[in-house]
Write a structure and sequence with these properties.
It is a single chain. The chain is of the alpha+beta class and 108 residues long. Helix content is 56%, strand content 17%. The protein has one domain. A hairpin with a 6-residue loop joins strand 1 (2-5) and strand 2. The relative contact order is 0.21.
Length: 108
């Protein structure tokens, strides 16, 4: 669980993965806070790292079976991998940053 302090009242706000959104509201003083630039850069880095890793894994698995796969199936696998990677990158990046790198906020 991450903890952040409200810039207005100084109270600690306990965040869970579900409550650590781009914008949060202090339950004590109703101050609206947004993720700072540092957290946004962490999220971008995590998205790129996830997409790169995902593509490497799919490419490795594809190379193992490539001699037995037709061109049509190859194209379908690549398209499907791209869709899955794009669709899950935000969720995975948010989880990585929350669990390992930490999120921080600033007053909006």
């Amino acid at each position: 669980m991450n903890i952040t302090k409200c810039p207005r009242c100084g109270k600690e706000i306990h965040l869970t993965q579900k409550t650590a959104n781009k914008k949060i509201k202090c339950p004590h003083c109703n101050c609206i806070m947004k993720q700072d630039k540092k957290t946004e850069k962490k999220l971008l880095f995590a998205k790129i790292a996830y997409a790169f890793t995902f593509i490497l894994i799919v490419s490795f698995i594809y190379s193992i079976f490539s001699t037995e796969i037709t061109n049509t199936i190859s194209i379908a696998v690549i398209i499907l991998a791209g869709i899955v990677s794009a669709g899950t990158s935000d969720i995975v990046a948010k989880w990585i940053v929350f669990k390992f790198l930490g999120v921080s906020y600033e007053k909006e």
